[in-house]
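Student: Please help interpret what follows.
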Amino acid sequence: MTVAGDLLTNVSDSECAGQPDGISWEWQSSEGLPYLTCTLLSRWSHGFFTRDFSSQGPIDLTEVLQPGAQVYRLQQVHGNAVLKTSQLLPVVAPGPSTAARNYAEADGLVAEGELEALWVCSADCVPVLIADERTGLVAAVHAGWRGTAAKILPEAIAQLVAQGSQLESLKIAMGPAIAGEVYQVSVEVAAELGATIAPKSGVSATADGILEFLHQLPETPVLADPEPGKVRLDVRLCNALQLQQLGIELSQVAIAPFCTYSDSARFFSYRRDRLKKVQWSGIVSAGGTSSF
């Protein structure tokens, strides 16, 4: 990772457990404030920022990761639209002659050039940062349950592939989000996400049939809930299973061992607090193979 601005050092944390294949999550610090990185993306400037940075937006946070990079963000709408940076204007600091900015509505961004900083925000939904180790290009995705049901992550990957990426070259990190153990949803919502994973034949299209299929998976994204008509849902695992269907290996995917709902000291959670407060996640493209 390119280190810019203040010297960023690892902060030890007992929760930074390594992934099964040796990938780890590490706390970094900027001006004494913590943010999270993943060794899977160590070749790219990136960060999953905590609530401590709530007064700072993408322009400020890009200065932490890669000063001088062009900044891109969206107006997120819980859909599956993914835009390329050429379809947007870079975000600039407001000034006396700057009109109020209306951001394009979408939930995913794909870089097309060098030093493009892509940002998404979340408060329980899944922030996903994607990087291509061959081209250096990146993507950032906001995947809530609605976006996951609409397969936004496969859509972002399809756009990277259309730009020349190969599936085996992708590295994908899912940041802090609400954990399945505490995320209560209706059976219908769980079935809607499960339908994106279940085979079209051999599984009943009813909610009960889809849930039965999910429960039979070696690593199920659905857990029991004591309330009738409800289950607990792991949205990050649903996304991981969609990636597996695309042919992406488990070694290419990392899931942060942090829950926004449970960790009120570090993260905002809409489900916990019912407040519209968010934390930002971003990654900077490294460009072509000549600089990579």
Remarks:
- DSSP finds seven helices and 15 strands in the chain.
